[in-house]
Design brief:
The protein has two helices and no strands. The chain is flat, with a radius of gyration of 16 Å. One of its GO terms (molecular function) is methyltransferase activity.
């Protein structure tokens, strides 16, 4: 993710490699957060379609 953000010229972000469902919105670290960018794990389902084709 850091590489993708750097390529896009993003400079005002902080990566937090955490389980999104386990993060509390009341956590003081996220008090000033305005946006969240999620990068969900890949299921690999697209690979199956590609291999069949």
């Amino acid at each position: 993710m850091a590489t993708l953000l750097a390529r896009a010229g993003v400079s005002c972000c902080e990566l937090a490699e955490e389980d999104f469902l386990a993060v509390s919105p009341l956590d003081p670290r996220y008090r000033e957060v305005h946006y969240v960018l999620l990068d969900p794990s890949c299921s690999g389902s697209g690979e199956m379609v590609r291999r069949r084709g």
